[in-house]
Description:
Blueprint: H1 4-17, H2 27-38, H3 40-53, H4 64-71, E1 74-78, H5 79-87, H6 89-97, H7 110-130, H8 140-154, H9 167-192, E2 197-205, E3 214-217, E4 223-238, E5 241-250, H10 258-262, H11 268-278, E6 287-296, H12 310-320, E7 324-328, H13 331-337, E8 353-354, E9 361-362, E10 374-375, H14 377-399, E11 408-409, H15 422-425, E12 437-438, H16 444-456
Parallel strand pairs: 1-4, 5-6, 7-10, 11-12
Antiparallel strand pairs: 2-4, 3-4, 4-5, 6-7, 8-9
Helix pairs in contact: 1-3, 2-3, 5-6, 5-14, 7-8, 8-9, 11-14
The protein binds iron/sulfur cluster.
Amino acid sequence: MATAKTAIHFLGEEMRNHFLPEKMMQDVWKDAYSYYNTTALWKRHITLLKKGLFAKEVTEHLSKKTVSRLYGKTFLSSVSRLERFSACPFAFFAEYALKAKERKLYQLQIPDLGILFHEVMEYFSKELSEQNIDWKALNQEQSDQMIEKAVQETAPKLSNQILFDTAGNRYLLQRLKRISKRAAWTLAQHVQMGDFKPYGAEIGFGIEQTLPPIVIQLQEGEKLLLNGKIDRVDILDKDGKRYVKVIDYKSGSKEFDYTDIFYGLQLQLLIYLDAFLENNHQQDDIIKPGAVFYFRMQDPSIHIKKEMSAEEIYAALFRELRMSGLVLDNVEVIQGLDHIFESDEEGTLAENKTSSIIPVSVKSKGVLKETAQVASEENYKKLMAFAKQKAKEAGEALLSGEIAPSPYRKKDQTPCEYCVYHSICRFDTLSAESQYRLIQPINRKTFWEMILKQEKQ
Ligand code: SF4
């Protein structure tokens, strides 16, 4: 650090660290502090730094009048926004009410890549249907060619051609292509290994969308209108019943997680399934939940402990992209998702099998393993009702004017990690008022016990 002007930025950090138990300010910084504090030119800066150091986080509630001017009587929200609110009300407020935006830098951001993955997959699905190619008949060469074209068409629209501008970004483009090719071909194989048929991609629900919004009546007469876009819906028609599978593509490492559902942090899949089922209620008696899944669009990696053939490595990587979610506890659905479970005897599952597509394993005598992620139809309905109840609670809390920074903490995971509003929310764990909402992980058994208990109350 060469000048007093640059050094004062570091001094601010040192002053903050001074309050941490094991990080006392070093003598050189104490001297620097005395210098700035006793020099007329800099004293004002030190006063400001001290003010910032002891500033309190935002704790106010919005007034009824302000809430009504901001959101009105009918509040339209996507499911992911509600999840954002459940993660931290202030982050929601800053993003959707204040519409505070980060200064746009000319660089590729992680969310940009997420958008691009979705666009590539949407293009891919459209091409398949326009060229009248059945997912079941698709081969890897065709799949790769379509992704090549999809990336070429969609990437230039992203951030002013940014992906072509530097060697680093061009490498990123190659990586994006590689991940998309693997994802598309994996998804095609998933379809080919079962009986579910792709029904639609990017199905919107909301105002002026393919499906109407989900309407949730709130206290005091307000309404919450939920919208969203379902990445893909597949259908299995079997013996007069129609089973629905909903897939959400995720560019991160998202897993279906009971803790997150319980705390309203993961509502998308269940509400999307509910939206689809509700809007097909003319077939109410025959349309049923089949499965909900996250499909992760990422570069899979494996640990190689012994020598493996190319086929074994391919199979291990394929397994790494197994979907995460919940399956209806029904033999036809499980077999319809993965033929590996077909057995000679009708109505039973093949024994000692583990799927490389879905989170289901079967032990001897065709009994599901404890780890199989399944739920009965009755429990599926309870789960969808619970997700809607969580959405209602979040809607009511935000319409009551809640905006205080109140991030959760689950083990060492917090929403602050990638939040861009840190500089304005004043949430600082050094202050006694700023404490995380601690979330204890909930396992599946406890989750179901709590859901059933809540239902009885
Ligand atoms: S940094 Fe954390 S506390 Fe602050 S707005 Fe973001 S999520 Fe909330």
